[in-house]
Amino acid sequence: MSRYVSEPLVQRLPAYYRHMKELEAQGVTEITSRNLGERMQLNPCQIRQDINVIEGAGKQGFGYSVKELKEHLQKIMGLDQHRRIIVLGRGRTGQEIANHPAFADEGFPVVALFDLDPGHLAQSTAAVPVYPEAELETRVPDLGAKIAVLALPTEKAQEMLNRLYDLGIRAIWSFSRADLHPPRDMAVVNWHLYDTLQILSYRISQMEEESPRR
Amino acid sequence: MSRYVSEPLVQRLPAYYRHMKELEAQGVTEITSRNLGERMQLNPCQIRQDINVIEGAGKQGFGYSVKELKEHLQKIMGLDQHRRIIVLGRGRTGQEIANHPAFADEGFPVVALFDLDPGHLAQSTAAVPVYPEAELETRVPDLGAKIAVLALPTEKAQEMLNRLYDLGIRAIWSFSRADLHPPRDMAVVNWHLYDTLQILSYRISQMEEESPRR
Lengths: 214, 214
Hints:
The structure is a homodimer of 214-residue chains. By secondary structure, chain A is an alpha/beta fold. Chain A folds into two domains: 71 residues, Winged helix-like DNA-binding domain superfamily/Winged helix DNA-binding domain (Arc Repressor Mutant, subunit A, Orthogonal Bundle), CATH 1.10.10; 115 residues, NAD(P)-binding Rossmann-like Domain (Rossmann fold, 3-Layer(aba) Sandwich). Chain A is 45% helix and 15% strand. Chain A has eight helices and eight strands, in the order H-E-H-H-E-H-E-H-E-E-H-E-H-E-E-H. Chain A has a six-stranded parallel beta sheet, with helices on both faces. In chain A, helix 1 crosses helix 4. Chain A starts with 6 loop residues before the first helix and ends with a helix.
């Protein structure tokens, strides 16, 4: 299977998948590009182009099969693989992610939490096994995890990323406020609380400049 | 003040600000584009171009003043304004954000939480006042909030966005899994837990296709 998925389409894949699941739950089996476009607020031409890429072939017809499209999306995104997650760091964010009840239902089970502060280990309230950071190298190979959540102090984040890379982890979801520099074949998504607020604040400033209050 | 800040630079502004604060804390008062480039893993040419935009003027010399640059960044991002936040929805995410201890220190105080389920009101553990959703229109004008956090069920998110827009809110940080359609003069940042995981899963699939395991 080989196809070029543009970056904007990558960002839209989860929305397509979500809409297919909703349609299926509503008992809808076929949908036209026009109706799907209305649902997703996208132009029908865009929908057809996207679906040609998703299904890997052009198609003439009067509707798309919801079930087929959903299966294609699952396959492209590897959602049939049950990507296991490990969480590093046991502050508020680490605990929140580790204890999130619905990740497993969505195919992303959290299988372990690694704590940088061994003193915490005794008072664990996590729903998953908690190991000290020092056991990363011995535990990760057996855990079969593909994704690591970094909820660590800034200064530890890059070092951890490097160690995880050496252990075969290829996807990082980081809540650390570090400028991470991953190897080329490692995917990183950064979620920075303050950066997000600062960017929103910037947007407000811009809008106020463009239309000052009287 | 008028300058064109490209979208990639908008995304970098928080990192510049963070580095200026760190340098200041370390007692550094001046920094060259080369040293800053090494810190931020950016080319010195990029640094100079960015700073010309941030400072609103070209500059010849042997170093940038950390204090001045920090003040410019604060001004551009409106961080001297204390942007107040309201939170809508009191599930896990809503509570987490409302009780986050450090937002106020960063200039983003959470001033109220609006609960869609009035039955919850009695058992509030929030550190901020909790009001029923029905009081949105009477409370928000007095709260002086600029940013709203949406931690709501998907089906309520767009309706709330519309009501908040009418109340003068111009920035939304959404954790709802809805495809939001904001007016042109409203900024929205979406944080979707599952979408993020699905995109990471997609990246893993891509990498495995490119270099299959033997």
